[in-house]
## 1
Amino acid sequence: MLRLLSFVFLCATAVQAQQYDLVLHHGHVIDPKNNIDGERDVAIHAGKIAAIESSIPASAAKHNVDVAGLYVTPGLVDIHVHVFTGLRHDAWGNGDLSVPADVMATPNGVTTMADAGSSGWRDFPEFRRRVIDNTKTRLFAFINIVGAGMANSDDVAEQNEHDMDLDALSKTIEQNRDVIVGIKTAHWQQPNFISVQKAVAAGNRSHLPVMVDFGWFDNKSYETMIATILRPGDISTHVFRMPAPLLTPEGKPAPYMLDARRRGIKFDVGHGGGSFNFALAEPMVKGGFFPDSISTDLHVDSATGVMINLPNVMNKILALGVPFSEVIRESTTNPATEIGHPELGQIAVGSVADIAVLRVDHGHFGYADLAGGKVDGTERIVPEMTVRAGKVVFDLNARTAVPWQQGHLKYAVR
Ligand SMILES: [Zn+2]
């Protein structure tokens, strides 16, 4: 009887001792928001970060994974992607350019994305039903100022100021407050700022930031836009696209850029298929003007071109000399804060367990821009694992699996 009792007791303590679902052991944790930069064990329980300690015993967890030699960072946050093509899509000219979010997020350490204006208010219910509510990646959206969104060619739908209905827009925002994080104006090519002014008006009405996504400043002044129209917290994406004169004749970041930054304007990379050039990025970065956030402008053309994926865009910024921990800041807490979700992009006890485990290879690597230009790098970030709300959703080197001989045979061999 005594023996039976002690057996029960042992089982109970063993179960009780396993207070965590998963512990990542011996990784180098980098969390810029909470100033963590060193080796820590990270425990996860019920989808949240449960402990960050110098050492957590393996007996405390149901599952233990050794990530020695790897970096453990907050799950990456990409605030400029295109993961929806609207019902009104009929003549974009390039076909359907949107990408399934999970396919590009999960294997790349990305746990949060914000779609940048693929949908306007007209297609938003469809976007929500088909994509946002059925994607494992946490997906937010900037809603397009144009009702039809990026419905067809840039030259048609998004030039239509008569489809900028602020009443319909604000109604859709109220119905989708949990996922809409901003207003987007894109591809505006007219010699005025009507789309930006309307987006700012909508932003004021709904208390949301605006993201401006275009690079046509030959017929209007970029300086005027960021100095007088955009508000603190608004985001200028495609910061390293060529046309706007961001550099002084001596090749230094223009004083008006520094003024706008002091005023609170945020500058986002938005690499895309036509918006990243080292001829601009290198002198800006070397002149101390780092981007606030690193994003992909993900779509079929950019993913199959020189953008490739978010880690590759981070590699380019790293190759320009931005320190690794700063690159992580620009890919986690900074973009999360820009979209009004400062609770994301960090590894803190109680926060959601969205984590990227990254390897940094050292060697000789090349990184290309959109003009065929190249920068050599000595480091390359390679995603090893992605944890989304406490679940391992990507595991490049099968760290969470066991030798198959020890596993349970799941499929009958015939
Ligand atoms: Zn875009």
## 2
Amino acid sequence: MTTTSRRWVLARHVEGAPSPEDFRLETVQLPALEDGQFIARTILASVDPGMRSRLSGGDSYAGAMKIGEGIDGFAVIQVVESRNPAYAVGDVLAAGGGWREHIVSDGRGLIQKIPAEWAGRGVPLGAWIGVLGVPGLTAWFGMHRVAQAKEGETLLVTSAAGPVGATAGQIGKRLGMRVVGVAGGPRKCAWLEDEAGFDTVIDYKAVPDLTAAIAEACPRGVDVLFDNVGNESIDRVLPMMRMRGRVVVSGQVADYNVEPQDRYGLKNTSVLITHRVRMEGLVVFDDIRQFAEAQAQMAAWIADGSLKIAIEEFDGLERLPEAFCGLFRGENFGRRLVRLAADPG
Ligand SMILES: NC(=O)c1ccc[n+]([C@@H]2O[C@H](COP(=O)([O-])OP(=O)(O)OC[C@H]3O[C@@H](n4cnc5c(N)ncnc54)[C@H](OP(=O)(O)O)[C@@H]3O)[C@@H](O)[C@H]2O)c1
């Protein structure tokens, strides 16, 4: 049995864009298990833009990380030793694991046994920490509960090629919406139009005037803005919101690397009054009781090929910081995961 394990810890608080030097790889001793605990090995670990908000030393909706603390994140793991009757050796789980080779768990927290029935039906393991995990569920509850999106409406999605944005847009299409995406670069834009079925996609890195491009793509205005980017992005679209429109504040990827006092300030909020627009954020865990229902529906769509997913894999624990830092340069194509071990047979 393995007695040591490697993990990434925070080497220093991050200022501005994260860099690999902000993280340090260390070897730790695995403890002898107590009753109720299990040890799992990591198969796939995720990198998420939202993790950035905990790395600067200030509190966000999740607490700030201290220097020397292990980096958290979602992971697909497999139990290798157990003294917890609920988790047997061999069980494959989606869980809060982190950038580490092994996880020692007391069985509490967000842990899901990955349902075996989907394994042979074209639903990859990585989907359970992607479209069937927090990113996809954010899209699901953002679109349904927060936006209350409806047939015939216009949906605008920013960072549209990420796992949250691409899922939100595809849910919009299923609801009968006209779906417009904003994403960076021709590859992402082509995938969104040709594979994910978006009606129009704007490459914000190529257009001379993004505001004009959005106005042209949404001639009747925007009913639902699903924003993953941040204040400037929201402020640009506010004047285009239709009466009783909804702004879903999902994420702020452009603002995570900027100190709060230096962030773009919203200017166009009068439209919230004049057009009775509702702007609402979400933390996906608020909807945890409905996760299973949403996952079953989306798993069926992945299996029948009607929900397109993009998963990009890096190999090896060593590559986690590099994979994470690239998110803020737009380098990821879909859900970015790092593989530490092959899928269990
Ligand atoms: N509220 C919740 O409960 C919840 C849960 C999960 C995730 N989220 C949020 O949802 C958002 C999307 O997450 P995701 O996992 O799908 O990641 P993602 O959209 O793939 O995020 C990375 C992408 O963000 C874009 N980006 C990076 N820097 C940018 C900048 N300065 N300006 C504009 N775009 C920039 C890039 O795409 P382009 O190449 O297209 O620019 C990059 O590829 C994130 O903000 C995340 O924090 C919220």
## 3
Amino acid sequence: MLEHKKHEYEYAVLVGIITQEQTVQMVSDYMDELEFLTLTAGAKVLKRYTQKLETPHPKTFIGSGKIEEVEAYVKANDVSTVIFDDELTPAQQANIEELLKCKILDRTGLILDIFAQRAQTSYARTQVELAQYQYLLPRLKGLWTHLERQKGGIGMRGPGETEIETDRRIVRDKITLLKKKLATIDRQMATQRGNRGSLIRVALVGYTNVGKSTLMNVLSKSDVFAENKLFATLDTTVRKVVVGNLPFLLSDTVGFIRKLPTQLVESFKSTLDEVHEADLLLHVVDIAHPQFEAHINSVNELLAELKVQDKPILMVFNKIDAYKAEDFDETDLMIERGSAHYSLEEWKETWMAKTQGDAVFVSAIEKQHMDTFRNRLYQKVRELHITRFPYNHFLYPEIEVE
Ligand SMILES: Nc1nc2c(ncn2[C@@H]2O[C@H](COP(=O)(O)OP(=O)(O)OP(=O)(O)O)[C@@H](O)[C@H]2O)c(=O)[nH]1
Ligand SMILES: [Mg+2]
């Protein structure tokens, strides 16, 4: 045990596969994200392994030669956790654990772990717990054999089916209980939302770590927890914001991510009710992230899953202060000029055309173009407001604010 106290962090190794449709660059970006997730969970990544494979190996996810390589490295370097960039089947997880004799996590397990660490309120905790039990249920058998192996020795022969069944029943009962608890909180929250009256509701949505909470703080001058870690926000915060003389409600909510575990989407549906009930969505994008277009697609897929893709959307491209186009060397005939080489101006043209003007480019940190953003927001909210209350159109003239 003392051994592991030598270093401050847990050491982890990452494993991923590269399928035919994926480029090496794509997988490298995915692994960057997995590394960031690992760091957020509190472990340090020592090494990454990737292998070209059409589909994951049914028994060990990667091939047997590769897994031996990982095994040797894990033994030699005091690695405590190996993390796979995909969901492992319960059988794969058990097999790999048997071979590597350390903690095996998959992407879903890792994200669930971060959510569990981050959950502050009893509502968020209940939602995460529900997702965790749902993830656990099909994996119970593997866990049993694991426990059994750890204890080992006399009197610890394999558990009978009855014990596994008992365990499953306990977990199922727990799931039922948690669902009931959530339903009760949901009813209370629905009542609270109902009491908010006639104000237009605007919701910040977007990939994790794009700056939603920072924008919320700038717009509402409030103090919402913002941090350079994934999933800083799990609970929904709602603030009344006034732009010009027009008040509306602004909500900040949990960030999205590629391959968000289905169990989490399911149990966070109620947190995302705020998105459901919004009149306008602000889709925030971190334009300085090399994969920002892929992020936009992931978010759009989730919005479609939540059936809110047809709501009015204003695209907010944030972090323009940190945007840097890749250098383009005109003399290098091997490289064609592509979107990676776009200047901010070119991105603006592209997205203004794509969204018929519903795009702004800002820096929340450097407060760049926040006035343009406020004006667009005023116009959008005003439109929605006077559609709902035509009489009020005297109150809110078509003006430039600030
Ligand atoms: N360079 C730069 N960094 C920014 C900007 N806006 C936010 N950030 C940083 O980006 C990180 C994430 O910001 P948050 O506001 O926590 O992002 P979020 O979208 O709320 O993240 P989650 O709640 O984790 O989904 C923080 O370190 C911010 O300081 C910006 O305009 N420019
Ligand atoms: Mg946040």
